[in-house]
Amino acid sequence: MRKTTTKTKNQQVETSQFHWKRRPSEIRGYQRTLYITAENGDYIRIDYNLREKRIRLYVEVQNEGGSPYYSVIKNGKITAERSVLSGRTYGFSEKFSERAEIFSSIPNNDIIRLINYNYGISFAKKRFSGKGAVDKQRRLEETRKRYFVEDKNPYDDQYAGAEQYIPKIGLIDILDFLVGLAISAGIFYYLQFDFIAMGVIAAFFGVSIGMVDMFIRERSPMVFKVIFFVVTGIASYIYGYYIS
């Protein structure tokens, strides 16, 4: 169901008709989220990761008692549709097509491009009519069911609200490791083999680089990288304090 955050200051983005709000996404693997409550009470949300070209559409339908549905679009293709309550996958295209006008009003053209006209969502001047979008999506759904065998659902019920995403080690992570090791080693030698100082610096660097990933780079922090420097720093501090 709907999630809220208490520590993040929301930003409001207005279009000619709709008032979207924006904040960092709390769902793992996504950078930020745009969300809005429609006039009929529907809660509509878009989480996105532009670098990974992944979009997550989420709707809570007011006239169904707030029943939540989500769809994942990866590289312009729908990879998952799901009812969060029932766990049923696929067959919910109308939940998104009927709200194509609202989705199309998001103030970010990069997101619109990544959605790739799915569910009739497009740039305002090229938007499909509501009925045409629903009919087109229904035909696509029927074709998919007729000719394609549905794969086993990779999403466990315990993760119904979010897709699991394992971040890959990139060049920036390797550079972070090298910088952290260089700083720690430099302090160690500069202070004449001071394990305590090296431990404090390493642990501080681990926490700091995790914050940089989240709030500056707007990406999920690599847990291994943070844990490596924090644990190494604690071990070095203990060794210097009690043994050396």
Explain what you see.
This protein has 244 residues and is of the alpha+beta class. The chain folds into 2 domains: 11-159, no CATH class; 171-243. Helix content is 40%, strand content 19%. It is built from 7 helices and 7 strands, in the order E-E-E-E-E-E-E-H-H-H-H-H-H-H. It has helices spanning 93-97, 100-104, 109-115, 130-147, 171-190, 195-215, 223-243, and strands at 11-14, 19-24, 32-37, 43-49, 54-61, 67-74, 77-83. The protein has a 7-stranded antiparallel sheet with strand order 1-2-3-4-5-6-7. A hairpin with a 7-residue loop joins strand 2 (19-24) and strand 3 (32-37). Helix 5 runs antiparallel to helix 6 (195-215) and helix 6 (195-215) packs antiparallel against helix 7 (223-243). The longest helix has 21 residues, at 195-215. The radius of gyration is 23 Å and the shape is elongated. It starts with 10 loop residues before the first strand and ends with a helix. Mean pLDDT is 79; it is low at 1-9, 126-130 and 150-166.
